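Q: Got a minute? One more chain.
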Amino acid sequence: MKLCVISLGGPSSKKIAEEANEFFDEVAELNIKDLELCLDDKGSVVKNDVGNLEDFDCIYVRGSHKYVLLQRALTRSLYKKVYMPIRPNAFTLGHNKLLCSLELQQKGV
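A: Always. Here it is, folded:
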């Protein structure tokens, strides 16, 4: 199985990738700054140096609040194609107190 960790390349992300080697045959690390999301009438394509992200079995996306829109767009374009433990709307909810509070209220928390 293949895992792709997409992040800013910080120490915690590197540790996650290192530990993931115990569970995955191959672990690739991509810097979120090196990704390009292209949209056309056929759908979306994520351009990078590794190849097609749809070839991975799992993609784990991390990053700071500065990249929330890219994180959400990236996970939304790949959500039904590759397993991702984090849903696309989690990035927006996690960085917006009002939306997070409304979502928790709707869930009865």
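A: DSSP finds four helices and five strands in the chain.
Q: Perfect, thanks.
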